[in-house]
Design brief:
Elements: E1 3-5, E2 17-21, E3 24-29, E4 34-35, E5 39-43, E6 50-53, E7 72-80, E8 85-94, E9 101-109, E10 120-123, E11 130-133, E12 139-146, E13 155-164, E14 169-178, E15 187-194, E16 197-204, E17 212-218, E18 226-235, E19 245-254, E20 260-267, E21 281-289, E22 295-297, E23 306-308, E24 322-324, E25 334-337, E26 346-347, E27 353-356, E28 368-373, E29 378-386, E30 394-403, E31 406-414, E32 420-428, E33 443-445, E34 452-459, E35 462-469, E36 475-482, E37 503-510, E38 517-528
Antiparallel strand pairs: 1-23, 2-3, 3-5, 4-25, 5-6, 7-8, 8-9, 9-10, 11-12, 12-13, 13-14, 15-16, 16-17, 17-18, 19-20, 20-21, 21-22, 24-38, 25-28, 26-27, 27-38, 28-37, 29-34, 29-38, 30-31, 30-37, 31-32, 32-33, 34-35, 35-36
């Protein structure tokens, strides 16, 4: 079998849930505050993946306006019961402090493309829900449970309860079936059945560098569950030199010919500060069942950078320059923030991307920002903007964005007298204040008419902004910034509390409340090979 280099889903694609239906594989990943909710990729060979649908598209399924950064849609679980697809997910309204407001829902569809149903509310006792279809036709719903009292832990265990699809609700008793190991922070449950054993795969250790996937089993679905001989079947916590770090939160799949694989989230830190600018990604490992009926990861538990897969990966599209135009609407690579009413923030009528200025960049309610994932350590991005702001409260332009507290934003705006300006706004790990920095030349005047070309180049940890007036060549504007600021490690929460990834795109704000519009002709994204793409782990 050909060897494929991890990750299989580069860039912000965390918390993978994998499923095979016939010859088709699907992976669902978390999208947090980005809309539409949940990404589902498809593959025939586990090596080559294509985004096929984001199933949460309606206000009735989720409304993320007001959800703080790194809240929203967490840890979807995608399953199939032989008749239809089922998707369970959490909408997180609050995550910081002693309390978490986490509402769990269930939707279903006859085909992966949909139509996806309106949600059935399940519970709010915790997050990371999962749905298991037993051989006798019963369905079991599990999620981690949260205990604000810390008796003895905030992450108090995995709850199990039966789901009745006809009644549309959870029924019968609820039991804490698994408290986790001494690594703590037990979450992300997935359940399986094999040879009379119920297997429970969980994530532990938090989603930072101590992360792990833990396996347990029982003859009875209600437990008690015994721990795997290795305890953690995937982890990098004791291997700081491994290429794939922060490894855990996984799911298991079998191939038609009987091979077994586990997908898991991972991060690839860069630089001495070990920052994951591409966020949490999805990797895959080959596994096998031992004579003791336990699952083992090949060469594990430390994840391998290269893995034997049924297919060879074609990286042509991954390394190709993308020039996005808007004659056929918004390309599927792009998402926006929180709102299920995109017509209020953008339009592609007339073949241009028009943003309607709403709230300020970083708003948790309604900001006009459309962007795609950063999936390479180095890249170029460029756009051309037509925009006539009236004053300093109207601004639009090109942004590299992580969250309210971490972004770089090259804007066209105006002074109070209406004179158009070019202005850099940057927020560099500004939690909790959320204040702007004032780097380099604060602003330069530009003519009040004519298009402006805006660009950014990222080379590893170095980020440079550029601009050009009509008929002119691009020139640098502002200092060289630290590109690793737009990373989980700088995301504006306590340690291991930021969960998304870097995006690059366009935005518009009108703090006058007049919805001043900005037009963008195109957006280009050009991958550049970087030394991190050639990194090989040290051989012990």
């Amino acid at each position: 079998m050909p060897q494929v280099r991890n990750p299989i889903l580069p860039g912000f694609n965390p918390d993978p849930s994998i499923l095979r239906v016939g010859e088709d594989y699907y992976i669902a990943t978390s999208t947090f505050e980005w809309w539409p909710g949940v990404q589902i990729h498809h593959s025939k060979d586990l090596a080559n993946w294509e985004l096929v649908v984001r199933p949460l598209t309606r206000k009735s399924q989720a409304d993320l306006r007001g959800d703080p950064d790194s809240c929203g849609i967490w840890a979807p679980c995608l399953t199939h019961d032989g008749d239809r697809f089922w998707l369970v997910y959490t909408d997180v309204k609050r995550k910081d402090g002693s309390f978490k407001d986490t509402h769990n829902y269930i939707v279903h569809a006859p085909a992966i493309e949909g139509p996806w149903s309106d949600p059935v509310y399940a519970n709010s006792s915790g997050f990371d829900p999962s749905l298991f279809h037993d051989e006798d036709g019963r369905k079991w719903f599990s999620n981690m449970m949260w205990d604000h009292r810390r008796r003895p832990h905030l992450f108090t265990g995995i709850a199990l309860q039966e789901f009745d699809p006809q009644a549309g609700k959870l029924v019968g008793p609820r039991k804490n079936i698994f408290a986790g190991s001494d690594l703590a922070f037990v979450e992300g449950p997935h359940m399986y059945k094999r040879n009379g054993w119920y297997y429970l795969l969980t994530a532990e250790g938090g989603t930072g560098y101590g992360h792990a996937a833990t396996l347990a089993r029982s003859r009875d679905i209600w437990g008690p569950y015994e721990m795997h001989p290795q305890k953690h079947i995937v982890t990098s916590k004791d291997a700081p030199l491994a290429a794939l770090q922060r490894s855990g939160h996984g799911d298991i799949v079998d191939t038609p010919d009987g091979r077994t694989y586990i997908v898991h989230l991972t991060g690839r830190p860069v630089g001495q500060k070990r920052r994951c600018v591409l966020g949490r990604e999805t990797a895959i490992q080959e596994a096998y069942w031992g004579d003791d009926d336990w699952l083992y990861v090949k060469n594990g538990p430390v994840p391998s950078l290269y893995v034997d897969l049924p297919g060879a990966r074609d990286d042509t599209d991954y390394w190709s320059e993308k020039r996005y135009t808007f004659e056929d609407g918004l390309h599927k690579d792009f998402q926006w923030l929180r709102t299920p009413e995109p017509e209020r923030i953008f339009s592609t009528e007339g073949g241009k991307l028009t943003l309607f200025g709403r709230e300020s960049i970083g708003s948790w309610f309604e900001q006009a920002l459309v962007a795609r994932r950063q999936t390479h350590f180095s890249f170029d991005a460029e756009t051309t903007i037509s925009y006539a702001p009236d004053d300093e409260r109207q601004f639009a332009g090109l942004t590299v964005y992580y969250c309210r507290y971490n972004f770089f934003y090259l804007t066209v705006t105006a002074h109070a007298d209406g004179q158009r300006e070019l202005l850099i706004m940057s927020s560099e790990a500004s939690w909790p204040g959320g204040k702007l920095e004032s780097p380099g030349p604060a602003a330069i005047q530009i003519p009040n008419d004519g298009k402006v070309k805006l660009a950014v180049t990222v080379r590893g940890s170095a980020l440079q902004l550029w601009y050009a007036l009509e008929g002119k060549e691009l020139e640098k504007f502002g200092p060289v910034f630290d590109a690793t600021i737009v990373s989980d490690e700088c995301g504006g929460h306590q340690v291991d509390g930021s969960f998304t990834g870097s995006f690059v795109g366009v935005a518009a704000s009108d703090c006058n409340g007049l919805a001043k519009s900005a037009q963008f002709d195109y957006i280009t994204y050009r991958p550049i090979e970087h030394e991190s793409d050639r990194y090989e782990p040290r051989r012990e």
